[in-house]
Design a protein that fits this description.
The chain is mainly α. It is built from 27 helices and five strands. It has helices at residues 18-30, 42-51, 69-78, 97-105, 118-134, 136-143, 147-158, 167-181, 184-197, 201-213, 217-227, 234-247, 251-264, 269-281, 285-299, 307-322, 327-348, 356-370, 374-382, 393-405, 409-426, 430-445, 450-462, 466-479, 484-496, 504-519, 525-541, and strands at residues 7-14, 33-39, 56-60, 87-92, 110-113. A five-stranded parallel β-sheet has the order 2-1-3-4-5, with helices on both faces. The longest helix has 22 residues, at 327-348. The chain is elongated, with a radius of gyration of 29 Å.
């Protein structure tokens, strides 16, 4: 006989396995809970969340079809479908660190690994519900965006010694409210005072935000160094370090920080988008492609799934394919771009997505160019309807790149200018703006597309036009810094030229960079033989 007192809390259990649902329901009923709602699918859970306010949601990650638990919880939180007073317990049989870090970043009240016992579940439920009930007035004020009322409620709780177990959470909430008010001097004093009491990671993170808001970048760097060493603040530190490095135009360092963060928690779509942008700025086509691929992977079934993600993957595949020497790899990337385009055509080709058609045609033209059908690509681009209005900056930028690749330089330059003006008017994302400016400048400097640039340089080299060949190889290496074949050509030009082509310090730096890439790459037999002969000749000359 169940002797537990009856409880009125409304609880939603989300799990697609009937046995797991039954177990959770039985456990909750044994604990006295009566208002229990069950959802076996994400869409059912979302509808229940839209129509009801729950006191507790128990969300299982492992779902057989459609959205997984992470995507469901992310959508509930992002769309504000539940109030802050609703407790979330996330449960999962999968405990891969990348999932755990991604879930923790969403800040559920509890994370519970399967299998678990009823007693453990009871402890978690009672703990979170008690905490939510005690802080209900605070959460209601926060939901209402009433900062002053929230601060008053927090201070009232802090004045009650009997609530001492809640003090760390209350103080953290107070810091969040002070930051949301934008009074960074007051917030800075508060966080500094907290750190004098105890080295709370949240207080140090709050202090970093205050420093950044007040332009104190050096102090922010110093605090972030400490936060990197703690697991609970490492993601925060990596993201903010990337932001700081980008502001100082240290693009390589910024990308490295984001690569580490994305490895820890790969499901954060905004981080992956930033990583893609930084990879493009650094001409790192491989990581650009990987970020685009991961965005498609983790967006599947989520609220972020949209045709632009598949178009972005197609563009990244083509950019990467144009930068490699390996025909087999280029062919694989070609297929990936084709599959991505097919997905767009299959899933989104209807009246509401008519604007996608021109973007797909541009990508088809770029695929033709990739397959050495330059004339067909040029004819296809020339036949496109003029772009009267820029509805997609990525689509317009891709068209400008395609026009340049096939030799329509004037049309490309004009479109680049239009995209730049559009971004200035719309206050575009700084990362995208930086990439756009770089791409525009590089395309103006290149009379030929990236594929022809190296071939033209080879011709110049064979005719003894050393300076022109060097300039062309150097530009090709700048836009394709991981292409070992181009690096070898530039290295050979520097070593064999009968006269100086650049300052001695620049020459030495380029030689070292090229050689490092060459020796880390799998060269073709002809390239390897040429490199070994040149290397031996170089060593003999300096013996």
């Amino acid at each position: 006989m169940n002797t537990a007192p009856r409880r009125d809390e409304r609880i939603l259990v989300i799990d697609d396995q009937s046995l797991a649902q039954g177990f959770l329901r039985f456990a909750l009923e044994q604990l006295g809970y009566q208002n229990i709602f069950l959802a076996e699918r994400a869409n059912v859970a979302l509808n229940l969340c839209r129509d009801n306010q729950f006191d507790l949601i128990i969300c299982a990650h492992n779902q057989q079809q459609g959205k997984d638990g992470f995507q469901l919880y992310e959508e509930i939180k992002a769309k504000g479908l539940q109030q802050l007073s609703c407790a979330i317990i996330f449960i999962s049989a999968e405990t891969d660190p990348s999932l755990v870090h991604s879930v923790i970043e969403l800040q559920p009240d509890e994370f519970l690994a399967k299998p678990f016992v009823i007693k453990d579940l009871q402890l978690r439920i009672e703990r979170v519900l008690r905490r939510k009930q005690q802080l209900r007035e605070v959460y209601q004020a926060l939901d209402a965006k009433d900062d002053q009322k929230a601060l008053a409620a927090i201070d009232q709780q802090l004045a009650d010694a009997q609530q001492h177990k809640l003090f760390p959470l209350l103080l953290r909430l107070k810091g969040d409210v002070l930051l949301s008010q934008g009074d960074y001097r007051t917030a800075e004093k508060f966080f500094s005072a907290m750190l004098n009491i105890q080295p709370f990671s949240w207080a140090r993170m709050g202090l970093v935000r205050c420093h950044l808001a007040q332009g104190k970048e050096r102090q922010a760097f110093n605090e972030l160094e400490a936060l990197l060493e703690r697991s609970e603040s490492r993601l925060f530190a990596l993201d903010l370090l990337a932001e700081l490095e980008f502001k100082q135009q240290h693009f390589q360092q910024a990308q490295q920080h984001l690569l580490q963060a994305a490895e820890l928690a790969p499901r954060n779509m905004f981080r992956q988008q930033k990583l893609l942008q930084l990879s493009r700025i650094n001409h790192d086509y491989e990581n650009q492609y990987r970020a685009a691929r991961d965005m498609v992977k983790y967006a599947r079934y989520s609220m972020y799934e949209q045709p632009d993600l598949y178009l972005t993957l197609a563009r990244a595949s083509i950019d990467y394919a144009l930068s490699v020497d390996d025909e087999e790899q280029s062919s694989r990337l070609n297929r990936q771009a084709t599959v991505s385009l097919s997905t767009v055509q299959r899933q989104y080709s209807n009246g509401s997505h008519g604007a996608l058609e021109s973007q797909q045609q541009v990508l088809q033209a770029r695929l033709l160019y990739l397959q050495d059908h330059k004339d067909k690509a040029q004819a296809m681009l020339s036949a496109l309807e003029p772009l009267h209005k820029i509805e997609s900056v990525e689509g317009a930028l891709d068209r400008a790149k395609a026009l340049h690749e096939v030799g329509l330089s004037q049309a490309s330059a004009e479109l680049f200018s239009r995209v730049s003006q559009h971004c200035q008017q719309q206050l575009a994302d700084p990362l995208f703006t930086a990439y756009l400016q770089q791409e525009q400048q590089e395309r103006l400097a290149m009379r030929l597309g990236p594929r022809e640039l190296n071939n033209n340089a080879v011709t110049l080299y064979k005719h003894g036009n050393w300076q022109e060949a060097f300039d062309a190889f150097k530009l090709a290496y700048q836009v394709m810094p991981k292409n070992a074949g181009i690096a070898l050509n530039l290295w050979q030009t520097l070593l064999t030229s009968p006269r100086p082509l650049c300052a001695p310090s620049s020459k030495q730096q380029l030689l070292e960079q090229c050689q490092q890439l060459i020796e880390a790459s799998n060269l073709k037999p002809e390239q390897l033989q040429r490199y070994q002969q040149l290397k031996q000749k170089h060593l003999n000359q300096h013996a």
